[in-house]
Amino acid sequence: MVLPYGRQTIDDDDIAAVVEALKADFLTTGPTVDAFEAAFAQAVGAAHAVACANGTAALHLAMLALRAQPGERVVAPAITFLATANCARYVGAEVVFADVDPDSGLMTPATLEAALERAGGPVRAVLPVHLRGDACDLPGLEALARDAGAVLVEDAPHALGTTATFGNVAETIGDVRHSAMATFSFHPVKTIATGEGGMVTTNDPALAARLRTLRSHGMVRPEGSDPWWYEMPEPGFNYRLPDILCALGLSQLAKLGRFVARRRVLSAAYVEALRPLAPLVRPAASPAWSDPALHLMCVLIDFEAAGRSRREVVDALRARGVGSQVHYIPVHRQPYYRERYGVLDLPGAEAWYARCLSLPLYPGMADADVDMVVRALAESLGL
After folding, report:
1. Residue 28: is it exposed, middle or buried by C-beta count within 10 angstroms (0-12/13-18/19+)?
2. Cα–Cα distance for residue pair 145/149, rounded to 1 Å
3. What would the pLDDT profile of 20-78 be if each residue is shown by its tens digit?
4. Active-site residue 190, yes or no?
5. Alpha-carbon gap, residue 196 to 55, rounded angstroms
6. Catalytic residue among 48, 190, 263, 327
């Protein structure tokens, strides 16, 4: 048995909620969708929440809702999952990759400013990623995006439950007070799970209405029309999240506080357990304003000083029963983007990638698992 880097926590009440949904009248789009959306909006403090098929669909819908198009640019950090950049290409926009802080992996106002200077065209959107669960400098990024005539859209799948304090004001990631929209994912390794699933939050009722139309083929039903009548002003997609999965999401969301608290306890235990391994190993940096519900326990390792490659360490950890992962390969290195934009010099992203490794972190871990993982890491590094 290998301890995975992430895993869903499914309890008997989650299973019961899904069974109940299976016995109900709706399996696809029904009242549980509305209930999940309302509960999620309340949980993060947003006016509207729109459920969809997955986190990638959430990003795509956000770009469609903004009417991003060919000839425009979308800024995305180089350290993220592929979907953050790909959502711009889905609508024909070009991607401008921003560098990141080498110790936190986050887009910063300085790296955004540099990306905006080399955009070479109108910038429609800026997509900061709350990597690992730590909050980006939203006020700083918001100001730069606004000055550039761009819209801020938070890519927040890692940060459900994260709070941040800017100027003595406590905020919740997803309340979208600095952005037009925030997107979330409910993949099994995320803070809550629906199997596959996503959500977009917004405080703009017009954006919420457009998101709902676009997730269901672009269909609208004009007021006063026949009950069977629908029209399609523009094509949309089948990005709906079914009642069955929303039932699981509702059950999981009710335990968000417990999940967040457990992640914080485990993260704090890691920080203490890793201290003897410094400076060879240290946790990723967390900004002073961020109080994260960490999705990923990323450590930065000086593999060269240790005299071991990352592959050797990963294999040695696995032999000791510990799974790990790398988050992420810089997206600008991918063959598609390298061919489209050439070789980019983003030293912060390269420095992050050279050192990062994600260790197991999920609510179902036992306290003793943290010590076991750190001991295995020390042995794998020859310490």
Report:
1. exposed
2. 6
3. 999 999 888 999 999 999 999 999 999 999 999 999 999 999 999 999 999 999 999 99
4. yes
5. 8
6. 190
